[in-house]
User: Which sequence fits this backbone?
């Protein structure tokens, strides 16, 4: 095995269960202060800081090699936001990338292709975003508190030096879908019908249409209360349809998601966004190809 890529949760509120899944034996990681495998109790930055204590070092993977082979891996830890790679969702994750040490690969994460500043620039500086969606000034969307301070800084700029594409929003992702209906039988598109019962809770107000969606959750026993919802204004919310959630995870429309709503949402919520996975696996492939050419 030339490379290993492991994904771990790194998002959520202070009550979230951020952790890195153990996809390899415990011996795959160096000794650190504390146990990097145990679930992090606390906010995602706490989890990230603990994981980043793992040094880039040569670590024996005895589970995948014979003792005489002395096979070792170089470990690299990245904390990323999927929105920076074209995913219309605020989804922070910890990625562990490992290469066989004999390949002597110097890992570099793929550069972000999208940025919050570019989105705010097009929304509140040039208005290009609203024009693209053919929205008049009176129909422009709202802004969440967590990016309002950043918007103030962007509006003061005369020129945006960041040439990245704007973060994709919920509207970008689902605007061209047919109107969701109440009945599964009446749905004109697979997995695109409404599920009743959505409610807004304190701290769970639903995703805004003109920002990346909040992190989609899977839940052990169905969708957690107040999660995976779209804000309709006036304190009202509705659940995203399964197809909308698939769009927010950048799955193609031809990708069929089987099972009842709870099961389908668990599949989507546990998935790695396609665009994020593509960015990192492509970078890994490029590094491996370069290493092959130099050997």
Assistant:
């Amino acid at each position: 095995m030339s490379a290993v890529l492991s994904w771990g949760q790194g998002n959520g509120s202070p009550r979230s269960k951020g952790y890195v899944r153990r996809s390899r034996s415990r011996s795959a990681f160096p000794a650190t202060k504390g146990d990097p495998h145990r679930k992090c109790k606390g906010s995602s930055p706490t989890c990230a800081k603990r994981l980043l204590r793992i040094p880039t070092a040569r670590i024996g993977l005895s589970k995948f090699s014979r003792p005489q082979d002395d096979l070792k891996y170089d470990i690299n830890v990245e904390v990323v936001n999927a929105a920076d790679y074209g995913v219309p969702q605020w989804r922070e994750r910890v990625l562990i990338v490992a290469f066989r040490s004999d390949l002597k690969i110097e890992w570099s994460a793929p550069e972000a292709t999208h940025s919050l500043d570019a989105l705010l620039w097009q929304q509140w500086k040039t208005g290009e975003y609203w024009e693209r969606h053919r929205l008049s000034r009176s129909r422009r969307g709202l802004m969440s508190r967590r990016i309002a301070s950043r918007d103030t800084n962007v509006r003061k700029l005369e020129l945006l030096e960041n040439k990245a594409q704007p973060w994709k929003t919920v509207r970008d992702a689902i605007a061209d879908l047919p109107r969701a209906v109440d009945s599964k039988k009446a749905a004109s598109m697979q997995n695109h019908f409404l599920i009743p019962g959505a409610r807004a809770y304190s701290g769970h107000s639903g995703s805004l249409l003109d920002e990346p969606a909040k992190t989609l959750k899977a839940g052990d026993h169905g969708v957690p209360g107040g999660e995976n919802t779209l804000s309709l204004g006036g304190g009202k919310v509705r659940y995203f349809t399964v197809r909308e959630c698939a769009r927010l995870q950048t799955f193609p429309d031809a990708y069929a998601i089987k099972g009842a709503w709870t099961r389908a949402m668990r599949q989507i919520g546990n998935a790695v966004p396609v665009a994020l996975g593509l960015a990192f696996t492509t970078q890994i492939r490029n590094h491996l190809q370069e290493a092959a050419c130099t050997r």
About this structure: The longest strand covers residues 72-81. The helical segments are 44-51, 116-125, 128-132, 145-155, 170-174, 242-248, 261-270, 274-294. Residues 3-112 form one domain. The longest helix spans residues 274-294.
